[in-house]
Every structure is written in structure tokens, then in C-alpha cells.
């Protein structure tokens, strides 16, 4: 008897030991054993190849992720995965065809997470593939871009964030510039700390090489690096020698490019009018930053410049009726005016821009360059609010006499409208990101247009065809005009360029003839690069013109851009890359994200490809409704209404649930009381559920629990993640370093502040938000099978509403019910950056059409 009891005790002890030591997995099961970034720049055309080689060191198959960030301006042109000697190439297809293939895969249950998101300068490319036990995979991604000259330099930005220190990490950059490189500098987070020693720059006359080979140890020791290795950018800036003002012509394989950037021309004095939005939505930091930027810009004006200042909300105020010379006294007076600009009413863009046009038009133009700069952060909401009419009015008033530049501040602007209006009037639109450096962005934009050298520039190429844009209204010092085309007769030995423009006080002509077959030329590494450069520039310009065109012409150009995108395998807004994975029939689709839109979630939210806008509601500053003041909504077409006063309260709602609504650009949002445990997402058929327990008196959740197929249980709180699959028990800690765990069709990928949970066809990211001493969780449902009817708060995908126009208080119509709404600032907790966005805040019942009690659970 005694023996038995002893044996039992021993067994129990063994069990206890295994139960505590075995489960806690903190080792990395994925080894990125090599990571190469190889960038070649030939005549400003940069082709970058990222190659990542990864081993699954686990004894079972698991999903391995590949995620990189590429410059926004670039087109992806190739993606390849190699697994067990077999290659899988991404294929670029027309958007509709790709979508179809994707939908078919989804309906077969071979779901395909589409991945795209966009930041300020970089966008994400993300994919994953299941790799067998102890096997390897190689990912290879290629992207291409034409570097743009700004303020006298080109910038090549390379991001590296492999997610772990890599034994064999190499970044090689080779720049070849025929006229010679005048200066080159390497900057960025990756050139800080210990890493400075890992960068080597070699210069020859026409070439420069930058290598960056940090050791594994060095990879953890830069400013933005850590346990997870490199995380940051390398920024290579350079310029080329410009010996001839006629510019540089490069010819290769039947294509040419002409870079025109003279700098030895006298500056033309300018007439510049700033039209500044001071509507309620500019309240707070935006208004402060705008004032700051204007003060600096005024200081930078040259004495022979003339300038005007217009501020507007629903009323338009002119600082002075005429343009005034930038004398010291005038500038001082202007600065006093700027310091007094306060945010107040609605947004009458039409009246303000027309006032600016009028001011410039009345000023004599001879020998000067006129520029109109509009800064706004919102839709037109007062006066003329019909966008088509505003554009027609502005176009007619400007009549191609000078360019209009539009600066869209933040994400509430109708950026399409601003882009279109600028392009129609010879300018460009630029986005100003709502961030601590917005004032510098504003000033940076002004610096680019501060020194006009030429106006009315026409470029001519008698021997060229299929030319990109050849006529420009202004040329500014520090920028560059680029024209590319095909050479009509490739057998001719010379090629002629001619530029006609108006300079300060004379008409100027630059003529040049170059030999197309220069024996001293070293052929570039990639013979086809010139053709690709031409295609890149052509597609970019065709896409840009799309907003201006209508009918047949638009369709034709659209077709042309699509044809070129397909031919050169560029992932553009018209195409998608379809990646077929080794797992039978599974496909993934990568799109080019659209500037200014939040990352789309395919699968859950239907794609809204154009932002539908509507015009009648006026609104003022964020959150004024909370302050208890009432809104004034001018009727359609009303003019010069008294301005709207707002209280100063502008609370940001940090605990709202967002509902994207098909066909509406403004999301709905609602709040949930924090004293219930909630059913967040449920699919009874696959026995899946996700429940959450909110933080008491704070935003977000303290615990989120998943249950799947009765035996899988996952519980996530703000310190740890515990998972039980019926047999094994695993525990991870937040911040322990990237980890993956796969068990049957459940996959967990843990990163520093998010965990990706995949259960069957359902994928949810749980974000860990940390700020000011509080930490909370927030789920972001990424993907769910389309034809399954989900329940739970995040299961609602069919929200809809209409705005009721003309009522005294903001009112929405939801399911035939009129409900009151507030237009508020809210944090979007579905993104780790938690950007502040705007949404229509309505009651829980109005949004969900059910009572909260229908979503409560007693147990997680
Ligand atoms: C980088 O690309 C160039 C040109 O394609 C090639 O010659 C070189 O070997 C590559 N380097 C690496 C490290 O892959
Ligand atoms: C790995 O798998 C093999 C064969 O299935 C098995 O013999 C071995 O014990 C496993 N090793 C580990 C560490 O699980
Ligand atoms: C244009 O810029 C170059 C250097 O970037 C400078 O040397 C030149 O003086 C500038 N021209 C004028 C007119 O400001
Ligand atoms: C420049 O050319 C235009 C037309 O070609 C002419 O009208 C104008 O007078 C010329 N300006 C000067 C300063 O020569
Ligand atoms: C999270 O869960 C773990 C394991 O259940 C527990 O030890 C820990 O105290 C929890 N943390 C919080 C903040 O509740």
C-alpha cells in the first residue's frame, strides 16, 4: 500500500513539473537567417529588392509572416515566395479580375487576408505562408520608383524592420548618375548609435555605393532598435552635378528621359495669396500650427514679393483689400493679423478662393509669378457647397492665369476635391498630416514654391513620341521638370530637345542636341530601366489626370494606364497582385492603398472604392455638442451667414465602437456602458466566440476571451496570453518578443503590441494600447467568412444611415427612425497609432438596432 501511495505522489510531482516547465514557450520558433535589401538607382530610377530567408525551427508546420514597408510613391513590381524548391510568383491583374479570384477563394473557405495600410511616407506589404516543420521559405519583393527632386535633393528612403536580429543582414545601395553626384548624405534612425559604424559609403565620379552590414549585436543598438532588432529608416539624400542649364538627357534602348532643372536664372518676384481656413474644425493645435507656419513664411518673403492674406469660415475676411509689397512694416502688420486669427464658424471655400483669385487678378502681373495657396481642413459647408459648382467657379475665375495649390490639413478634408481643383488650375494638392510637425510641413511646402525661376514652360522633342507631360506653368528653384518618351526613329544618332519659357525679364530658349550612341557610356545594370521609367511616369500622370477627365477620354486613359500597369506588372490603384499559395487554392491579393483612406479590411467590411460626399450639413468644431452649445446649419446655398460660435470643449471620445457604412464616408460610432461583459463576435456554426470585459471606468477591455470548437480557449489580458487547446497549455507575456504558435487551425502571432489570432477563417488582431499609465485591449476584426451570419457587437456589417438635411440639430435616419447624432472627435482604437477621426456618435440602440442587454454575457 505504502509503495502505491509513494508512486502516486511521484507521478503527481512529475505531472506538476511538466505542467509548469513545459508550457511557457518563450523561444523564437522562426529564424530569419538572412535579410537583404538591394537598391539600384540609375538616373534617379530606383529599383529595390528585399529578400528575406526564414526557417521554421519548430517541429510542426506553422504560418510565417513577411511584412515590409515601402515608399508610398513606389509601385510593387514583383513578389515571389520559394518553398521547398518551388516558386510562387505574384501575378498582377486588373482589379476586378483579382477581386473575383479572391471572392471565389473566400467562398470556398480558402480565405485570403488582404493586407494593406498606409502611413505618412510608407505603406505596408504583408503576407504569410504556412511552412512545414523544419523547412525554409524565401520571400522576395521588388518595388520601383522615380526619385523626385525637392528643395535641391533626391531622397531614397529604405525601411528595415525584420522583427528580430538577423545573423546575415545586408543593405546594398548603388547609385549611378551619368552627370556625377554632387553630394551624398546618409541619415535616418538606422544611422544612429552603434549603427553609424556599420554604414560604409564609397564614392566614385559617377557612382556611389552605400553598404549597411550591421552585426547581430549592432542591430539591437540604435535609437529605434531593440530586442527585436532593427526598426527604422535609412535615408540617402543626394543631388547630381548640373553642368548645363539645358538639362540632362539619357537615352537607352529606344526611350529617353530629360531632366530639366536650371538654377542660374534670376528669381522672379511673386504675388502670393494665402487663403486660410479658420473654421471651427481648425480649433486647437491645427490653428496654432497654422499661425506659427504663417509667421515663419511671412519672415521668408522677399522684399519685392507681394502678398495677401485671406481668412475664412462662413465669412471671408481680407487682411487688406490689395496685395501689398513685403516691406518690413507691412510684414509686421501682417504678423499681428496672423496672431489674431481664431477658429470660429463653417467653411465657405468657394467665396474665399474667389476672393483670393480676385485679389491676385487685380494686381499687375508683368514679370512676376502669381500663386494662390488654399489651406483647409474640411469640406465646403457654407455658401456654395456644391463641389462641381465651386470647381467651375474657380476654374472660370483663374482662367489658367496662375496656379492654385491646395493644402489639405488632416483626414477630414475631401482630398479628391482639392486634388481635382488644384490640377484643373495648374497646381497640386498636398496633404498636411495632423502631427506635431504640421507647421514644418506647411513651411516645407512653401519653401518648395518660394523661388519661382520660370513660368509658362514648354518642352519640345522633335524626335520623340508618347511623351509624358510637356507643359508646366511654373518652375521653382530646387525642383525638377522630368519628361520621358519613346524615340521615333531609333537609328538616328542625335536627339534634340528644346525648352521655351518665360524668365524674369525675357523669354528664354534652351536647345540641346545629344548623340544617342555615346561610346563612352557604360550600359546600366538593367538595360530596360529607361522603358520602365517611362512607363512609371506615364502611369503616374495618367492616374493623376483621371480626376480631371470625363466620359470616353477618361475611359481611354484609364485603359491605357491599366494596359501599362499590366505590361510592366506594376501594382497601381488599377491593379492588384494575386499571390497563390502552396496550400491548395489559397490566394491573397495585395492592392495599392489609396492616400488618405484608412486601411481597408477586406472580408469584413465591403470595399468602398470612391468616397461618396454630400454637401448640405454644416458642422463646426469637434465635440461642440458636448459643450452644450447649439449648432447653426445654414440652408443649402445660403451665403455669408453669421458665424457659428462654439464652446471650447472638444473632448475626444476614446471608447467608441466604429461602424463603417457602405456608401457613406463618415462612419457611425457609439459607446457601450462599461459594466457589462460583452459578446463581441460569435459564429455558432463554427463554435467560435469572442467575449470581452471592459475596463472599469476607462476605455477598452481588460480581458478578451476566445472559444473555438469547444476545446480551444484563449484568454488575453493586459499582461499575459494563455491558450489551452484541449491538451497543451501555453502562456505568453506581452513584450516577450515576437512569437508564433500554431495548433490545428488556430494560429497566434504575438508582436510587441498586438496579437494576431486566427481561428479557422476568422482573424482578429487584439491591440494592446498603452498610454499615460493605463493599458487596455481593443479588438480589430480583420477577416471573417462572408456568407456566415455573425452575431455580437462586431458582427454587425450592414449599418446604414442617411443624413436629414435642414433640421436644427444634426439628425440621422437609421432604419426609418430619426435619431439625434453628434459629429465628434474619436480615437480609432482599431489602429495601433490610435488616430483621432470624426464620426457620427449615436446611441447604442440607434447604431445596433438592439438593446445592450442582447449583447451581454454572464461569463467570458
Ligand atoms: C544587388 O543587385 C545587383 C544588381 O542586380 C547584383 O549585382 C548584386 O549581386 C546584388 N547584391 C546582393 C547582395 O544581392
Ligand atoms: C520532433 O519530431 C520527431 C518525429 O515526430 C520526434 O521524434 C521528436 O521527439 C520531436 N522533437 C521535439 C523536440 O518535439
Ligand atoms: C537656386 O538654388 C541654388 C542652390 O540650390 C542656389 O545656388 C541659387 O542661388 C538659387 N537661385 C536663386 C535665384 O535663388
Ligand atoms: C515673350 O514671348 C511672347 C510670345 O511669344 C511675347 O508676347 C512677349 O512679348 C515676349 N516677352 C519678352 C519679354 O520678350
Ligand atoms: C492576467 O492573467 C494572468 C494569468 O491568469 C494573471 O496571473 C495576471 O495577474 C493577469 N493580469 C491582470 C492585469 O489581470
Automatic annotation (TrEMBL):
VIT domain: residues covered? 16-145
Sorted keywords for this record are: Glycoprotein, Protease inhibitor, Secreted, Serine protease inhibitor, Signal
Q: Which PROSITE patterns match?
A: VIT, VWFA
To which protein family does this belong? Belongs to the ITIH family.
Q: Tell me the superkingdom of the source.
A: Eukaryota
Assigned GO CC terms:
extracellular region
- Which InterPro entries does the entry mention? ITIH (IPR050934), VIT (IPR013694), VWF_A (IPR002035), vWFA_dom_sf (IPR036465)
The region annotated as signal peptide is 1-21
Which Pfam families does the UniProt record give? VIT, VWA
MF annotations from Gene Ontology: serine-type endopeptidase inhibitor activity
* Lineage of origin: Eukaryota, Metazoa, Chordata, Craniata, Vertebrata
Positions of the VWFA domain: 271-449
Its predominant location is: secreted
The name this protein carries in UniProt is: Inter-alpha-trypsin inhibitor heavy chain H3
Spell out the subcellular localization from the entry. Secreted
Question: Which organism does this sequence originate in?
Answer: Carassius auratus
